[in-house]
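Researcher: Structure for this, please.
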Amino acid sequence: MANVLSAFGAESTTDDVLYGVNLQGKRILVTGVSAGIGVETARSLAAHGAHVIGTARDLMKAEASTTQVQKDAAAHGGSFELIEIDLASLKSVRTGADRLLAINKPLDLVIANAGVMATPFGHTADGFETQFGTNHLGHFVLVNKIAPLMQSGSRLVNLSSAGHRYSNVNLADPNFERTPYDPSIAYGQSKTANILFAVAFDQRHRERGVRAAAVHPGAIQTELGRHMGPIRIQAAIETIQKQRAAEGKSPFQWKTVSQGAATSVWTGVVAPAEEIGGRYCENCHVGNIVPDDAVISAISEGVRGYALDPDTAEALWQKSEELVEESF
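Model: Predicted structure, token format:
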């Protein structure tokens, strides 16, 4: 087991992680397969024989983005299909979930990959702040509704971020109705919520053999950063470079998309369930808790203790049920 946990790292790719792994007969759901690491996550799993169901808000865009997924699936005994789900609309989420429930086939792995980052202040179709509503509440409803399809041995992997360190969840005002809006704080809250949801889901389902974890994919150049702008991104990189130089570390380098998707795949398929259940994973290993005053950057490791707090996880679950007006 120790070898499995230490064999991979920040530079590992999906091909490294899945080397020799046969996923034939496995059914896997991946949200957000129209761009970035969602496409690579789906491709790598289908290329190892899995039947992958990809969700996307824009099916035309997703179809164009996943031609290689289809090719690799066909070449290696896997398969791939798309379904329309807009995580910023609970009506769309529930329709998509009902479709999956009607098919009534088991899901061995759910990777809640889709998300938005640092968006201008706005609201989802249901009136929730865009990032909290899309990144957390959309997945909260989707995953809980399809949870009956997850049998013993199944896993949930929630995509979080080192950005969770920007903020804990503000359960008194999650939609910034009274709090001044800051895109990074809102993003941080949504990413902390992704971790806390994994903690609470794992707590509820572990006795029946279903485990959940959250992952930080690392710093990758994808569409996710489109709201930040090149100047802001460059300034962040320069700050990181100075920090690393001062610490005597090698210069920062972006991860490739395949390296970025590797931790999702490692956590969902390769890592021992007991090691990752209820935890936060990064660079293909389980992350350590760091102090609340630790440096925030896309490549600094560690998870804030508040993001793994079981009491906060339970409070978020209750608040989420209240907001979406549905109990699970």
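Researcher: Any notable elements?
Model: The chain has one domain: 2-225+256-324. Confidence is low (pLDDT under 50) at residues 1-5.
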